[in-house]
Amino acid sequence: MTDDTPPTADAVTCTGLTYAFGGSKAVDGLDLTVTSGEVFGLLGPNGAGKTTAIRCVTTLLPVPAGMVKVFGHDVAAGRMAVRRMLGYVPQQLSADANLTGRENVALFARVFDVPRKERAPRVAEALEAVGLAEAADRMAGTYSGGMIRRLELAQALVSSPRLLILDEPTIGLDPIARTGVWEQIMAVRAASGMTVLVTTHYMDEADQYCDRVALMHQGRVRAVGTPRQLTDDLRARRGDGSSPTLEDVFRDVAGSGLDEGGDFRDVRRTRRTASRVG
Ligand SMILES: Nc1ncnc2c1ncn2[C@@H]1O[C@H](COP(=O)(O)OP(=O)(O)OP(=O)(O)O)[C@@H](O)[C@H]1O
Ligand SMILES: [Mg+2]
């Protein structure tokens, strides 16, 4: 691919992005900018619209209203060009239990257009990067939840993406496995300079690993900044001398709407993901 990206382009720009399922707007006028090279956390309660927005950025859903650009490329105009720049770990399981780890990653290498001659070494490299070199020729069905998540990370990394998008990469994992996934993400990012857009419900992860976060609620961004800026803002607004955490910011933004946020389908979907990987 010829890279005609303006050098100053942001990794992701959403302007007025709106997406409705039937009559209900899952994403409702979303404005969001992810700067090139940063780790950006998209946070928000169940049903806030995070996955829907991400699916629009990855070109898996169309953009019915508003505009989405990835490194300056309009996703509506050039879906393949955009896909070649992306690695994506979806919220739901994407590895095939009946293939080996190596076969799973090789499949993604083919789908994401890695040149045929480079495929075998790139697959081996991706498996090595996530610590699965030794288990590579076992069926993915025999992997633990943490290994499955790392396999999915290898699938997303095999095409050397400029933008890695992770939808709840650590859901259902034990604390050690969570740290393992993050350490691998941060190592690849340090080596390659890729941009990372991640959703998580773990505020400690967002606080520790994200350069900036956005709090999304009912389809829109309600607050954005570094974790420190957001907690400082809340402290100033409260003015009572307390030291709020990112979780307090989350509660403040999601506030009274929490009860309406998630629905049965959300819970079922989240649990299914958690039990499949956990
Ligand atoms: N395929 C679908 N059909 C109908 N409604 C949907 C569909 N997918 C999502 N929704 C609805 O859109 C809204 C946003 O869902 P979305 O999955 O984007 O939220 P989310 O922020 O990713 O939530 P979670 O934190 O639970 O993953 C919810 O009200 C959800 O019920
Ligand atoms: Mg989601």
UniProtKB/TrEMBL annotation:
<dbReference type="InterPro" id="IPR017871">
    <property type="entry name" value="ABC_transporter-like_CS"/>
</dbReference>
<keyword id="KW-0547">Nucleotide-binding</keyword>
<dbReference type="GO" id="GO:0005524">
    <property type="term" value="F:ATP binding"/>
</dbReference>
<dbReference type="Pfam" id="PF00005">
    <property type="entry name" value="ABC_tran"/>
</dbReference>
<dbReference type="InterPro" id="IPR003439">
    <property type="entry name" value="ABC_transporter-like_ATP-bd"/>
</dbReference>
<feature type="domain" description="ABC transporter">
    <location>
        <begin position="12"/>
        <end position="243"/>
    </location>
</feature>
<keyword id="KW-0067">ATP-binding</keyword>
<dbReference type="InterPro" id="IPR003593">
    <property type="entry name" value="AAA+_ATPase"/>
</dbReference>
<dbReference type="InterPro" id="IPR027417">
    <property type="entry name" value="P-loop_NTPase"/>
</dbReference>
<protein>
    <submittedName>
        <fullName>ABC transporter ATP-binding protein</fullName>
    </submittedName>
</protein>
<feature type="compositionally biased region" description="Basic residues">
    <location>
        <begin position="268"/>
        <end position="278"/>
    </location>
</feature>
<feature type="region of interest" description="Disordered">
    <location>
        <begin position="232"/>
        <end position="278"/>
    </location>
</feature>
<dbReference type="GO" id="GO:0016887">
    <property type="term" value="F:ATP hydrolysis activity"/>
</dbReference>
